[in-house]
Design brief:
The protein is α+β, with helices and mostly antiparallel strands. It has one domain: 2,3-Dihydroxybiphenyl 1,2-Dioxygenase, domain 1 (Roll), CATH 3.10.180.10. The protein has three helices and eight strands; from the N terminus they run βαβββαβαβββ. It has an eight-stranded mixed β-sheet. A hairpin with a 4-residue loop joins strand 2 and strand 3. The two termini are 13 Å apart. Bound molecules: cobalt (II) ion (CO). Cobalt (II) ion binds next to strand 1 and strand 5.
Length: 135
């Protein structure tokens, strides 16, 4: 069902400062930056090899990531796996009784279709499934 790890997402309180850290300390540059209004996030994709670190800032305090930062502080937010059949993956997970945040795919950053799997059925880890247009 799963391809590679597409990205590892880190919630950050200051997106510009985080971008500077990844550039200056780790030597990694932002390949794509985007505000996804309906998710309440601004994300910066930092390429590392064949995957990305997704720096995830909140567009406001009253957003999912804003509340996460308030409650947990900065740090690991979710891991995104690439799949070639998102609908099929959701059907399979549902059949196994895995709790889903998104029962149907929705549009995420970079125009990719995504769906989130609830951490409560996954040992506390929020997982994002991503299907790219080419796959
Ligand atoms: Co993500």
């Amino acid at each position: 069902m799963l391809g590679k790890i597409e990205h590892v997402a880190v919630a950050v309180a200051d997106l510009d400062a985080a971008i500077a850290l990844y550039r200056d300390v780790w030597g990694l540059d932002v390949e794509h930056r985007e505000r996804v209004e309906d998710q309440g996030v601004e994300e910066a994709m930092v390429r590392i090899g064949d995957s990305y670190i997704q720096l995830l800032g909140a567009t406001g305090a009253d957003t999912t990531v804003g509340k996460f930062l308030e409650r947990r502080g900065e740090g690991l937010h979710h891991i995104a796996y690439e799949v070639d059949d998102l609908e099929g993956a959701l059907t399979q997970l549902k059949a196994q009784g895995v709790p889903l945040i998104d029962e149907v795919p929705r549009r995420g950053g970079r125009g990719h279709m995504v769906a989130f799997v609830h951490p409560k059925g996954n040992r506390g880890l929020l997982v994002e499934l991503i299907q790219k247009p080419s796959s």
